[in-house]
Amino acid sequence: MKHIPRKRFGQNFLTDQLVLSQIIRSINPQAGDTMVEIGPGLAAMTRLLLEGVTQMHVVELDRDLVVRLKKSFSAEKLIVHEGDALKFDFSSIPVPEGKKLRVVGNLPYNISSPLLFRLAEIAPLVQDQHFMLQKEVVERMVATPGSKAYGRLSVMLQWRYHMDLLFIVPPEAFDPPPKVDSAIVRMIPKAEMLACEQKNLEAVVTKAFSQRRKVVRNCVAGMFTEQQLIDAGIDPQARPETIALEQYVNLARLLPAA
User: Fold this and answer.
1) Broadest EC class (predicted)?
2) Does residue 37 have a known ligand-binding role?
């Protein structure tokens, strides 16, 4: 029976076999990998991944799709976790000693940013992540200082990950076709992050980008003095989107530990 995509779950199913093959080549699944897929949907990518891995986990919210997945695959081959990926405890997935999780998925556009921040919390447990996201979101993730796309998402994710936009996926590769282009992003957690308190960095970045058109001195007024900005290597007249990650970290270090 044909599954009708549900708008409330942000369902757009990838059907283009060439694109699917390109994604699998980028992921390069290996037999010993502990692979977890978020939102497997109709299992187009799941089937191909299972050709490379011995066993994998999937997290699916749609009950109808959960039933379909359990009917289509053996419980030994595919471990299905029914629930919301935003609430799922990824650390509960058993991983062999010395190994880490590999996370993949065609992420629903309506929850992509909160899900990325949620996954950042388990970055130390992750080997890599390959996601399909709205192209605009991926461009924001990988944006460099000085570009219009550079913002809070760029700074917070670049603090934790090395990221690359691998390739663009057109709307016609999906059923139903979304109204925007998609893109595949590779995210590799950094072995060594710039030292600072995450909550402090979040506070600094959120305040800095709350008024993009203003100069940074005005954006963070009440949090930092002009001299503190200068000491952190920042021109007080600079706009938030021109300030590098390292400089935001310098500011975060000035705040008391949470």
Assistant:
1) transferase
2) no
- For 73-126, how does the pLDDT look when each residue is reduced to its tens digit (9 = 90+)? 999 999 999 999 999 999 999 999 999 999 999 988 888 999 999 999 999 999
Q: Looking at domain 198-252, does it have CATH number 1.10.8.100? A: yes
Annotated binding-site residue? 14: yes
At residue 237, φ and ψ (nearest 5 deg) are -90, -5
Closest CA to 60 of 84, 91, 28, 30: 84
Phi-psi region of 146 (alpha: psi -120 to 50; beta: other; left: phi over 0): left
pLDDT at residue number 19: 96
Q: Is 153 a known ligand-binding residue? A: no
Is 151 assigned to a binding site? Answer: no
41 is in an annotated binding site: no
- Which residues of 33-100 form beta strands (DSSP E)? 34-38, 56-60, 78-82
149 token code pair: 């796309």
Q: Which residue has the tokens 């949470």?
A: 258
Domain boundaries, the chain: 7-189, 198-252
Q: What is the pLDDT of residues 134-191, one digit of tens each?
A: 999 999 999 999 999 999 999 999 999 999 999 999 999 998 898 999 999 999 999 9
Say which CATH superfamily domain 7-189 falls into: Vaccinia Virus protein VP39 (3.40.50.150)
Measured between alpha carbons, how far is residue 84 from residues 32, 88, 110 in Å?
Answer: 26, 6, 13
